[in-house]
Amino acid sequence: MLVEKYEDRSWPNIDISDPIDLLNYEIDELGHSQAELAELLGSRSRASELLNRRRPLTVEMIHRISEAWKIPADLLVRPRYPLLGITVTVLSIDSKPLAPESR
Whole domain around residue 28: which residue ranges? Predict the structure, then answer.
């Protein structure tokens, strides 16, 4: 109804557990731009790679975005790989998979 339409427009249902979705929301709905993000990160290609999930957020990026766009840093600090459905194998120094110690 009318109230639901207003609420959907005013408070859209976004997944804030994903930092990239949050950044896209900021760009699409809250008046920020990809050019503005590029300025914060130092280049257009870096902003594009970040928004296309080819580059992870670094601590420095999180700090800059958080300060400039007033986004709580903890919303930008989320594990990247579980969101992509990737299983990560931790390797030892000699590049062999680490196995749990057997007794």
Answer: 2-84
- Tokens 């949050």 — which residue? 22
What b/e sequence results for 44-83 when a residue is b if at least 16 CB atoms lie within 10 Å of its CB, and e otherwise? eebbeebbeeebebeeebbebbbeebebeeebbeeeeeee
> How confident is the prediction along the chain (103 residues), in pLDDT tens digits per residue?
777 776 666 555 666 678 998 999 999 888 999 999 999 999 999 999 999 999 889 999 999 999 999 999 988 987 655 445 544 444 444 444 444 544 4
* Cβ atoms of 37 and 19 closer than 8 Å: no
Q: Per the structure, how many domains does the chain have? A: 1
